[in-house]
Give the backbone structure.
Amino acid sequence: MKANGKLAVDTNAVIAYREGIKPVCKLIDESDILFLPVIVLGELLYGAKNSAKQKENEYAINILIDNSVLVPIDKAIAIRYAKVRLKLKKAGRPIPENDMWVAATCLDLDVLLLSKDGHFENIPDLEVINWEKNLS
């Protein structure tokens, strides 16, 4: 983890935390500041609404919100998103739309991203901890 103790989470990291995946729990629990990109919150809320355990999942999301810094999309992140998307397009390496927003958020905040999605490696300057690759 960066010396600043700041960490942002992707949707799959939050799910892994809820599942008790040890390396993910350790990183999240030991972070000084946990950032929750609003895009990730949207994906989590969708998943909760679409699940058999809607109330339980919504409760867990509310606890996460209370214990993290929710990061909205602002002008700086939108500018960063445009740059990331253009670089990926020119390189012929597109990634899912929401993940471009998550990456732009992390780049703007200069924080590590916790995710198991390998396609984040295609984004220059984005520091990612992939617990399936880096911590297994």
Remarks:
- The mean pLDDT is 94.
- The longest strand covers residues 33-37.
